[in-house]
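Deliverable D2.4 — example input (structure tokens):
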């Protein structure tokens, strides 16, 4: 398997799953909120490590607490973080992401206040130790020099470049990469209505590169260096759960196949298959396992004593509280009968392991973990709605049928 170095952003993704896409000025309650390590290259590297490669990132990191959180996240994704350029004055780049539970779409608002990776930092890294270099098409001023160095010092290692947005001067870099990934946003910015038209033009700028342009539901267009443009339709899926990182997953699967000397057509097919697989689940974990017909709520290994876990559930009006209890796993709808708010609305749900209760963070109603009955607080004797669950041999917890 290959040693792959990705050069790009590491981002803190704050993901709110909402029942629908909010209207302007609407006040909307999200079903769930979670934090993930994000950024295109970080996501692709996570998928590449699942595909069995040795992934390393070259990125910038801020001096705030979230930076530490991100580094730990990268490590837990089996991504080597030895090449991180730290900026004490900078803050962690953050994406605020609305995920529409109805469609699985993701809308990203990105905030950045961190210097870009410097040319000098890149120049000191021994890139010859890697089998593949994958760049994000940003930071053009420094990227130009980085690609020059890579072209000069690497003899047989492929270079790939992802072009997500139009940036001044980026076109001049195209011939430097062996594989170019274009997004449909870029194609649209350039005034093209499909990937084929874009690639016709790019072929002239970079005749020796493999070109790929992905276009959501319309599939992908691609062109092996110097050959005809071809089209790969999407793999249809029964339900779209989450599209965040689908493009990054596609890129990873293409790099994986090409690094094994497979033809571009096979690589693009593998990319679209894995991207489709990704869209059927939340997040990027365990992408190589079979999709189960039903999505588990969680696995018992994720539950710890005296702590609740709140998980989304597309089939119920509320998220679900899971907790390990003396008599087994308990599951309740995350909705306080007092004022119809999630129990973790104000803070986390505190558990008292001695009294065997858990507390709504909004108005301090205490509920028995055993039966969900309120034993103290503003909705005395009211009950949380029990969620029927079943657990399979692997410990996956499902909504009972
Ligand atoms: C998804 C993603 C997110 C990140 C954003 C950055 O492709 O990489 O993880 O926040 O895009 O543009």
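Example output (designed residues):
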């Amino acid at each position: 398997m290959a040693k792959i170095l990705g050069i790009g952003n590491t981002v803190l993704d704050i993901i709110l799953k909402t029942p629908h896409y909010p209207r302007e000025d609407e006040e909307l309650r999200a079903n769930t909120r979670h934090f993930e390590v994000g950024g295109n290259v970080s996501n692709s590297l996570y998928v590449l490590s699942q595909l069995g490669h040795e992934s390393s990132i070259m990125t910038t990191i801020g001096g705030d607490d979230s930076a530490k959180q991100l580094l730990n996240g990268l490590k837990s994704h089996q991504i080597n973080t030895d090449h991180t350029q730290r900026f004490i004055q900078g803050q962690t780049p953050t994406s605020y992401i609305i995920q529409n539970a109805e469609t699985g779409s993701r809308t990203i608002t990105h905030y950045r206040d961190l210097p870009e990776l410097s040319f000098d930092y890149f120049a000191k890294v021994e890139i010859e130790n890697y089998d593949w270099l994958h760049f994000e098409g940003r930071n053009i001023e420094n990227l130009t020099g980085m690609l020059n160095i890579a072209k000069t010092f690497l003899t047989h290692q492929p270079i790939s470049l992802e072009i997500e947005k139009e940036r001044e001067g980026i076109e001049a870099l195209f011939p430097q990469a062996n594989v170019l990934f274009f997004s449909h946003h870029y194609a649209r910015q350039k005034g093209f209505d499909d990937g084929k038209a874009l690639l016709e033009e790019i072929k002239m700028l970079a005749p020796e590169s493999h070109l790929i342009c992905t276009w959501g539901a319309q599939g992908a267009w691609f062109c092996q260096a110097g050959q005809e443009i071809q089209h790969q339709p999407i793999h249809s899926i029964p339900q779209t759960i989450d599209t965040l990182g689908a493009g990054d997953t596609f890129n990873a699967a293409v790099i994986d196949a090409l690094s094994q000397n497979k033809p571009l057509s096979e690589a693009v097919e593998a990319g679209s298959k894995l991207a489709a697989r990704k869209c059927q689940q939340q997040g990027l974990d365990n992408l190589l396992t079979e999709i189960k017909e039903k999505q588990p709520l969680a696995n018992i290994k994720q539950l710890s004593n005296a702590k609740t876990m709140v998980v989304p559930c597309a089939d119920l009006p509320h998220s679900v509280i899971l907790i390990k209890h003396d008599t087994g796993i308990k599951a309740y709808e995350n909705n306080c009968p007092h004022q119809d708010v999630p129990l973790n609305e104000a803070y986390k749900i505190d558990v008292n392991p001695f009294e065997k209760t858990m507390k709504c963070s909004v108005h301090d109603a205490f509920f028995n973990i055993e039966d969900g009955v309120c034993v103290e607080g503003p909705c005395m004797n009211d009950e949380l709605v029990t969620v029927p669950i079943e657990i399979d041999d692997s410990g996956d917890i499902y909504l009972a049928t």
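The mean pLDDT is 95.
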